[in-house]
Amino acid sequence: MKVGFVGLGLMGRPMAGHVAKGGHSLHLWARRPESLAPFADSGATVHASIASMAREVDVLFSMVADAPDVEQVALGPQGVAEGAAGRTDLVFVDMSTIAPDAARNIAGQLAAKGVSMIDAPVSGGEVGAINATLTIMAGGTQDAFDRVLPLFQLMGKNVTRVGDSGAGQVAKACNQILTGVGVLALAEAFAFAEKSGVDAARVREALLGGFAYSRILENHGQRMLDRNFKPGFKSWMHQKDLRIVMNEAHRMGLALPSAAAAAQMLNAMVGQGLGEEDSIAVLKVLEDLGGVER
């Protein structure tokens, strides 16, 4: 297939690379020339605009920051809709994390112009993108999903069509609730152990063999012990995702007290200048609040 890609950051760059390695014709657009530099020897076709790319490719992916960015890519000047005018066979796949209602709205406007859309946010972070082990949660029609599935399988190991437009974003919101609350709970447990004068590493070792086991305890727990706060997933991005969760919860009149607590802690992290660190750096905030010496 001819495959377009917009958004060549920490996640998008390796994802696009996997598509190229899978034998497909890669087409790219980027605001900054340095984003294209890693593809200089890949044989990729670089376009002057997203619209130019949309005229030529079979599937066009975006991996950008938030809903306004997706709207700009899809519906803005020289965007997907403009380039796809007269076509009925283009599939636009947004792999960003945005609000479900925003995904449904963009999908509806594109459908009116003959473009199918899949919302397909991911979990797994930069490591998952590099290793092609992402979890991909998709929303859209079965036909569009089936067309894109071979490309998804180049990027991830667990690919699920959750439902119609917006369903992928709902699944991602659920994922962010679980990971946000899980990371906060783990940080609280370690802060409790440290304040009690007990080695958190030995506590983790004990808990790994019990009902409290989780991948968060295994992976993020070791990173907390190593004081490795290098971002696999930046705090400001997790803050944004939980803001989406809480906005949706308010709209539906749904109580999410644990998610609300996690969202507030992420707000505190960003407010303290930790937005560029991994969300597991919430441990630092709890240690400061509790007077835990490190």
Automatic annotation (TrEMBL):
<dbReference type="Pfam" id="PF03446">
    <property type="entry name" value="NAD_binding_2"/>
</dbReference>
<comment type="similarity">
    <text>Belongs to the HIBADH-related family.</text>
</comment>
<keyword id="KW-0520">NAD</keyword>
<dbReference type="GO" id="GO:0050661">
    <property type="term" value="F:NADP binding"/>
</dbReference>
<dbReference type="Pfam" id="PF14833">
    <property type="entry name" value="NAD_binding_11"/>
</dbReference>
<dbReference type="GO" id="GO:0016054">
    <property type="term" value="P:organic acid catabolic process"/>
</dbReference>
<dbReference type="InterPro" id="IPR013328">
    <property type="entry name" value="6PGD_dom2"/>
</dbReference>
<protein>
    <submittedName>
        <fullName>2-hydroxy-3-oxopropionate reductase</fullName>
    </submittedName>
</protein>
<feature type="domain" description="3-hydroxyisobutyrate dehydrogenase-like NAD-binding">
    <location>
        <begin position="166"/>
        <end position="286"/>
    </location>
</feature>
<dbReference type="GO" id="GO:0016491">
    <property type="term" value="F:oxidoreductase activity"/>
</dbReference>
<dbReference type="InterPro" id="IPR036291">
    <property type="entry name" value="NAD(P)-bd_dom_sf"/>
</dbReference>
<dbReference type="InterPro" id="IPR006115">
    <property type="entry name" value="6PGDH_NADP-bd"/>
</dbReference>
<keyword id="KW-0560">Oxidoreductase</keyword>
<dbReference type="InterPro" id="IPR002204">
    <property type="entry name" value="3-OH-isobutyrate_DH-rel_CS"/>
</dbReference>
<dbReference type="GO" id="GO:0051287">
    <property type="term" value="F:NAD binding"/>
</dbReference>
<feature type="domain" description="6-phosphogluconate dehydrogenase NADP-binding">
    <location>
        <begin position="2"/>
        <end position="163"/>
    </location>
</feature>
<feature type="active site">
    <location>
        <position position="172"/>
    </location>
</feature>
<dbReference type="InterPro" id="IPR015815">
    <property type="entry name" value="HIBADH-related"/>
</dbReference>
<dbReference type="InterPro" id="IPR008927">
    <property type="entry name" value="6-PGluconate_DH-like_C_sf"/>
</dbReference>
<dbReference type="InterPro" id="IPR029154">
    <property type="entry name" value="HIBADH-like_NADP-bd"/>
</dbReference>
